[in-house]
Amino acid sequence: MTAWTLYRYRNTDGSSKDWAVRSNADGSITTRWGKTANRLPGVSNRYGIEQREIERQKQAKGYVWVGLVDIDVNGNVRFPDSSLSTTPLVPEAIAIPSPPVAVDKLYWHVDCRAGHTTLLDMGIALRRWLGDLEAWSQAQELAESNWSGWQRLIDASLDEEAFDLSGQIHREHGVLPWLWLMALKHAEFPGVSVGIATENGRDVSADLKAETEVLALFKTDLPAIRPLAECLGLLKPKLDLALAMADQTDHWF
To answer: Cβ distance 113 to 142 under 8 Å?
Structure first.
């Protein structure tokens, strides 16, 4: 068997599919794919593309790095330190740490198969959040972001057809594009799948408190963006106990 790099994509219904890739001695790239299981039946060979580039393309579509595996000529998948079994390789059974690669950009992917009503609701929400971001940016005297995803996603939400968009967010784009996509991810519109991943394929959650590494990428932290995050619905507003009690009538006697 030969070492392969395995990636996984999680669907909104809880199911998942796998994709694996390896480089061959003749310069070609072999890929395998299929539903998450102990066998990946799909296979193809490609020339003229590097393994790193095709992996980045998959990450941009929401695939998350799982680990290195062995795959035989029949597509049977086995982790190097485990014996082949008939039990599907579900995410909970995998305990392989991601390689320590520093975060220098994010990959995003929005797959929309929603109906017309949901598209309208999503478009309204996107434009409302964008207004909140612009107001915040002006108040903080930040430079305007040249991220192309703003208009691409807005335009797509105005159509009545399904769409599939992906791209990258670099440090120079600032934290606002990420927060915008995080708001969309957190909203969980039916039929809309939002994937955000780091350079090493780690899936970025919708929990800001758990994403200190991504915040550091944009040279900020949670306290600095808390008011904006609360406005976008990513954080619950903090309760000011002193202010709340100031409005209460004093009943002590």
So the answer is: no
What 3-state DSSP class applies to 207? Answer: coil
Question: Tokens representing 76?
Answer: 């049977």
Nearest to 60, CA basis, from 183, 169, 147:
169
The answer to whether 198 touches 190, Cβ cutoff 8 Å, is no
Number of neighbours of residue 207 by Cβ within 10 angstroms: 11
Work out the end-to-end distance of the chain between its first and last CA atoms, rounded to an integer number of angstroms. Answer: 82
pTM over 0.70: no
What are the tens digits of pLDDT across the range 52-103?
888 888 888 888 888 888 898 888 988 765 443 434 444 444 444 444 445 6
Distances 175 to 117, 170, 183 between C-alpha atoms, Å: 30, 9, 13
Q: How far apart are CA 29 and CA 64, in angstroms?
A: 19
CA–CA dist 171, 216 (Å, integer): 10
- Which tens digits make up the pLDDT trace of 10-33? 887 778 899 999 988 888 899 999
Note the Cα 39 to chain centre separation in Å.
26
| Residue pair 60/103 in contact by the 8 Å Cβ criterion | no
Cβ atoms of 157 and 123 within 8 Å: the answer is yes
